[in-house]
Specification:
The complex is a heterodimer of chains A (61) and B (394).
Chain A: E1 2-4, H1 14-18, E2 24-27, E3 30-33, H2 43-47, E4 53-55
Antiparallel strand pairs in A: 1-4, 2-3
Chain B: E1 5-11, H1 15-26, E2 31-34, E3 49-51, H2 52-56, E4 66-76, E5 82-94, H3 96-109, E6 113-115, E7 118-126, E8 129-137, E9 140-151, H4 158-162, E10 174-183, E11 191-195, E12 205-210, E13 215-223, H5 224-227, H6 233-244, E14 249-259, E15 268-269, E16 272-274, H7 290-309, H8 316-344, H9 349-360, H10 369-379, H11 381-392
Parallel strand pairs in B: 1-2, 1-9, 2-6, 4-11, 9-16
Antiparallel strand pairs in B: 3-5, 4-5, 7-8, 8-9, 10-13, 10-14, 11-12, 12-13, 15-16
Classes of the chains: A alpha+beta (61), B alpha/beta (394).
The structure holds flavin-adenine dinucleotide and iron/sulfur cluster (2 copies).
């Protein structure tokens, strides 16, 4: 599962652009990840420029 | 209110969407632009650098858009060796808040209608043919039927995905970028600075683009494969600013992804076209996407207008003349730049230093990007194989 850190997201969409199942939704100032369809690939975690996203499985957590 | 029906819906009010809308509206079509943000032009997720020649394809440069005029460039190697040379063509650092707003204004003055705070979250279909979009306008649901939909939704490129086009980026084809606009510093207002080093920006580069003498866009982009190793763009940029500009004040911070990828294939499907970042038209070597996005918007508008004015159905086959026009204008070059990116981003710091040392012996009047490139070839002969591949198409 991906955790979104509060008040750090810039809504830039970099994570959306790599997400294979297209389960991230970004509005003007709102980000949501659909846990049902997320495949835990962590690509979004890697590309986020601001370290907003983290994976519960990640050893660095 | 958003009309229930129109000729063309453009999703996204960036340079690519507005350029499309301007030209389609000028040919007499009903066009609406739907933009999710509150303001066109804000936030500015961009270094704001363009070439004079590129800008002039579309518009006479307006002094209100220009924050700095650039006629020199500096490349800074990992060991801080500086290679400085004059540019053959001048460039600008824009104020994209004003520039993007003007592009949308031009489209509106040609008859397009612009709606902000309008979030598109899905497409309408009839028998797999795209027939419109649905979304939220000021949080109220709406649907609009259209003969043609334009995905100009930037790096997210979801509109294309909803229509079955594979637009998601591989890690090696995205740069994770971050930029701060820093004031209270001293910079040369006519020089682009590029730091090439794995120390500051692995698999990418760091830029200092001046906005006058005391302010600059300082940003960097690191390749997705490097970001996977655990250090974020943020940590690199914070380290750089603390080291080089500790006295500066940060007036703005923006994150962003840059697609450094091959152009999306196909760029169209039945009832839908992709333009700009959504179609991965960004120059994959430099990450510049303003002009190439506008170019794709213009080409797409030419094709769309011809088809819709003739009252023909915008099928994938018909729309495909846009993909062909893109391939003939920029496509081949794009492919070459993509392959060059794959080689150059693999340079190690000691190789970059060796190149810089050789170049520092070259008189400034002889320096050019070509010279730098040929010196790079000598320093890393294996690049020659990549370049040979590049030009022979193997
Ligand atoms: C850090 C960074 C630095 C850069 N520096 C430069 C540079 O110096 N020079 C250069 O030429 N290029 C640069 N680029 C690239 C350049 O910013 C882009 O290529 C350019 O903005 C692309 O224009 P566009 O119109 O395709 O997309 P965008 O400008 O991204 O516009 C897309 C629009 O679509 C809207 N949108 C997205 N989804 C929806 C939706 N579902 N509903 C409604 N609206 C939606 C977005 O809000 C956005 O306004 C940089 C990029 C980054 C990230
Ligand atoms: S990449 Fe990071 S900053 Fe950008 S939208 Fe995703 S979570 Fe937010
Ligand atoms: S972990 Fe993978 S599937 Fe889940 S939100 Fe991130 S990119 Fe999408």
């Amino acid at each position: 599962m991906i955790t979104i850190a509060d008040n750090t997201c810039d809504f830039c969409g970099a994570c959306v652009s790599v997400c294979p199942p297209d389960c991230i939704e970004i509005r003007e100032a709102d980000i949501e990840i659909d846990e049902e369809t997320c495949i835990d690939c962590n690509l979004c975690v890697y590309v986020c420029p601001l370290e907003v996203l983290s994976s519960d499985d990640s050893p660095t957590d | 209110m958003i009309p229930q029906q129109t000729d063309i819906v453009v999703v996204g009010g960036g340079p690519a969407g507005s350029t499309f809308a301007l030209h389609a509206a000028q040919s007499g079509l009903d066009v609406i632009i739907l933009e999710k943000d509150r303001d066109i032009g804000v936030p500015v997720r961009c270094g704001e650098a363009v070439s004079d020649a590129g800008l002039r394809i579309f518009h006479e440069p307006d002094s209100r858009w220009i924050r700095s005029t650039i006629d020199r460039m500096r490349m800074i190697a990992p060991d801080e060796t500086i290679i400085e040379f004059p540019l053959k063509e001048i460039g600008y650092i824009l104020d994209r808040r004003i520039f993007d707003l003007d592009l949308a204004r031009f489209a509106a003055e040609a008859g397009a209608r612009v709606f902000t705070k309008t979030y598109v979250h899905g497409l309408l279909f009839r028998d797999d043919f795209v027939t419109g979009v649905r979304g939220l306008y000021l949080n109220e649901p709406f649907e609009v039927q259209a003969k043609l939909v334009i995905g100009a939704d930037g790096v997210e490129s979801r509109v294309g995905r909803w229509a079955g086009i594979r637009t998601q980026l591989k890690l090696k084809d995205i740069e994770s970028g971050l930029q701060k606009t820093v004031s209270g510093i001293d910079v040369s207002s006519n020089i682009f600075d590029f730091y090439l080093s794995t120390h500051w920006a692995p698999g990418g580069y760091l830029w200092v683009f001046p906005k006058g003498k005391h302010m600059a866009n300082i940003g960097l982009a690191i390749n997705g494969t490097e970001a996977k190793k655990g250090r974020s763009a943020r940590s690199f940029l914070e380290a750089f600013i603390a080291d080089k500009y500790p006295q500066g004040s940060v007036l703005s911070t923006v994150a962003g992804g840059v697609p450094v990828a091959r152009t999306v294939v196909p760029m169209v499907t039945d009832g839908l076209m992709l333009v700009g970042d959504a179609a991965h038209t960004v120059n994959p070597l430099t990450g510049g996407g303003i002009i190439s996005g506008m170019r794709s918007g213009l080409l797409a508008a030419e094709t769309a207008s011809k088809i819709l004015i003739a009252n023909e159905n915008p099928t994938r086959d018909r729309l495909n003349s846009y993909s062909k026009a893109w391939a003939s204008v920029g496509g081949k070059n794009h492919e070459r730049l993509y392959r060059l990116k794959e080689s150059i981003y693999r340079f190690k710091d000691d190789e970059l230093n060796a190149i810089a040392h050789r170049l520092s012996a070259v008189p400034e009047s002889d320096l050019s990007l070509f010279k730098i490139f040929s010196t790079a070839l000598r320093a890393k002969p294996s690049l020659l194989i990549d370049v040979a591949r590049l030009f022979t198409g193997i």
